[in-house]
Design a protein that fits this description.
The chain is α+β, with helices and mostly antiparallel strands. It has two domains: 115 residues, Arc Repressor Mutant, subunit A (Orthogonal Bundle); 209 residues, no CATH class. The protein contains 13 helices and seven strands. The strands form two sheets. The protein has a five-stranded mixed sheet, with helices on both faces. The protein starts with 7 loop residues before the first helix and ends in a 26-residue tail after the last helix.
Length: 340
């Protein structure tokens, strides 16, 4: 499928089904934002046709597939928005600490919290997923700091000295010298387009500029067109680089030991070997995206009919090049991965 074949109608159907993957139907306002490079009346016309063809219903301003029954959708969305705000509030202290670290150039919130779709905290213990861009040769040190702070608060919570549940997870990590993303998919584009920036708006603009493939799926808005040309010091100090290298060796040894002792492979990509790179950590990788891709395919095909070309276009690394000549059970190139 070429970009011009991913037309507005296909895009809208994909976005509607994708929202159902996360049990969170889009509002009309959210859909219009995601289709911001198209005219409002064009989007409305397609929605009207989909409703007329009995594919969707519009309930309290939310777009719901006909086969799904979401009662009290407004109350559900309000509860999840409230849960998302509580997650941010509980993690305010650690967020302030991280924002003050000089070699963290950009930090934003992604995942369910960014989409205001956080489930019940007691039942599901959701994470606050972070997108972090650090100076060159400092990313593993950042990860080590996050893990240490998180484990420290878990200990305080365990002994009763703190009631806060620290659930921060550095889901994406990049260094300023290499902002390109390895896993180019609809999932990654969707997350990149919906980051809630806490620090480094100019770095976010540079990230979008470096990953123009995102526009194949969505149309992310740069926060400010003027900041992309600023001169930014992207090199970490000598001390930070040394500490970063030590942290990298620590994680490599730890993950290798876990693999050797428990048979659990630790990797951050679709590749078979360990990720030896210094400048990227992308947790939302093969295993999780495979799960999302399969669920989206099931929902989309059940409502709009089988479309193998579309699914390969949306998740090119999940489905192999011979997708048109194989059954779905044979097209996966990655099993579920385990990672910290």
């Amino acid at each position: 499928m070429r970009k011009d074949e991913f037309d507005l109608k296909t895009k809208i159907k994909t976005l509607i089904c994708y929202a159902h993957v996360f049990d969170c139907p889009l509002s009309e306002r959210e859909l219009l934002y995601l289709c911001n490079n198209h005219k409002k009346n064009e989007v409305k016309e397609i929605l009207t046709n989909l409703e007329f063809d009995n594919h969707i219903v519009i309930n309290s301003g939310h777009i719901i597939l006909k086969k799904y029954n979401y009662k009290d959708i407004l109350e559900t969305r309000r509860e999840r928005l409230s849960n998302s705000k509580k997650i941010i509030n509980e993690n305010q202290t650690i967020l302030r600490i991280l924002l003050k670290i000089p070699f963290i150039l950009m930090m934003g919130i992604t995942g369910a919290v960014a989409h205001h779709n956080t489930l019940d905290r007691i039942k599901y213990t959701p994470d606050l997923d972070l997108f972090i861009v650090s100076k060159n040769c400092s990313l593993h040190l950042v990860r080590f700091i996050v893990i240490i702070i998180r484990r420290f608060y878990v200990l305080l919570n365990y002994v009763g000295l703190s009631k806060k549940k620290i659930t921060i997870d550095p889901n994406y990590g990049l260094e300023a010298g290499n902002l390109s993303v390895n896993v180019k998919s609809f999932f990654t584009a969707y997350e990149a387009s919906s980051i809630k920036i806490l620090k480094g708006q100019n770095i976010y603009n540079l990230f979008i500029s470096e990953n123009k493939w995102i526009y194949t799926y969505l149309n992310p808005k740069k926060i400010s067109q003027k900041t992309t040309h600023l001169q930014i010091d992207t090199n970490a100090s000598f001390v930070v680089r040394v500490l970063n290298y030590c942290c990298f060796l620590f994680f490599l040894a730890l993950n290798s030991a876990k693999h050797f002792i428990f048979g659990i492979k630790k990797t951050y990509s679709f590749e078979k070997d360990y990720d030896y790179t210094f400048n990227k950590i992308q947790h939302s990788d093969g295993g999780y995206q495979t799960h999302i891709a399969l669920k989206l395919r099931k929902i989309y095909d059940a409502e709009f009919g089988e479309n193998k070309i579309l699914h390969r276009f949306l998740f090119p690394k999940v489905y192999n090049p011979n997708i048109l000549n194989t059954d779905y059970k044979d097209i996966l190139v990655s099993k579920k991965l385990n990672y910290d």
